[in-house]
Design a protein that fits this description.
By secondary structure, the protein is an alpha/beta fold. The chain is built from 8 helices and 5 strands. The protein is globular.
């Protein structure tokens, strides 16, 4: 994924305070995609991109791209946080997502509403509240529910070929613990608002996607041909 440069008026990645969100939910649909590491979020996001016309934004991919960008003032900090299984400061992640959304909307088809799947976000309550108030209120959170032992087995197998520094047993345990402690409260918060679609992620990818399609239809999302 290519590195994303901040817009000219954002010399730093800290998001400015705003009275209203940058994007209206009437014109832009945002769905958060959450699940523990190895729950299969990426696979299902690819299906939704293909069939529903979503733009897939991975918070992790954006952070890794920023980490590798030669002139990034945040690269070393991001690397340290990711390696230790910690969550990167909210301002950095939110601004990278807003930059990516702006770039996609500006290059999109005129008159067509933009759809975004934001994968692996929000991972903490402060991220959720900041994004909702400053960038765009979400439609709902698509939550892939999967036991730790299943996710660990998937990630160990993925680590054999992925080349990712955090696909190892120690980092996986840290990532899962971080998810339970910080991201589950986000799921619980949105669930109380009736804005969570929970899908069991234990079965095979095709079976899971059949359930996802049914749940998308219930929320008013039709396939785009």
């Amino acid at each position: 994924m290519p590195a994303l440069n901040p817009p000219p008026d954002h010399k730093k990645l800290s998001a400015p305070e705003k009275d209203t969100p940058t994007f209206s939910p009437n014109n832009v649909s945002v769905i958060y995609v959450l699940g523990g590491p190895g729950a299969g979020k990426g696979t299902q996001c690819a299906n939704l991109v293909r069939d529903y016309g979503f733009k897939h934004l991975s918070a992790g991919d954006l952070l890794r791209a920023e980490q590798d960008r030669p002139d990034s003032q945040f690269g070393n900090m991001i690397k340290e946080y990711i390696t230790n299984g910690k969550i990167v400061p909210m301002e950095v992640t939110v601004q990278l997502l807003e930059n990516a959304m702006t770039e996609d909307i500006n290059s999109g088809k005129e008159g067509q509403k933009s759809r975004f799947l934001i994968d692996g976000f929000p991972r903490k309550m402060d991220q959720a509240l900041r994004f909702e108030s400053a960038v765009c209120p979400s439609k709902f959170t698509l939550f892939f529910d999967c036991p730790e032992d299943v996710m660990q087995e998937r990630l160990i197998n993925r680590g054999k070929t992925s080349g990712r520094s955090d696909d190892n047993a120690e980092s996986i345990k840290k990532r899962f613990r971080t998810f339970v402690e910080t991201s589950m409260p986000v799921v619980d918060y949105f669930e109380k608002e009736g804005k969570v679609v929970k899908v069991s992620a234990v079965k095979g990818p095709d079976e899971i996607y059949e359930e996802v399609k049914g749940r998308m239809g219930e929320r008013g999302f039709e396939m785009r041909k």
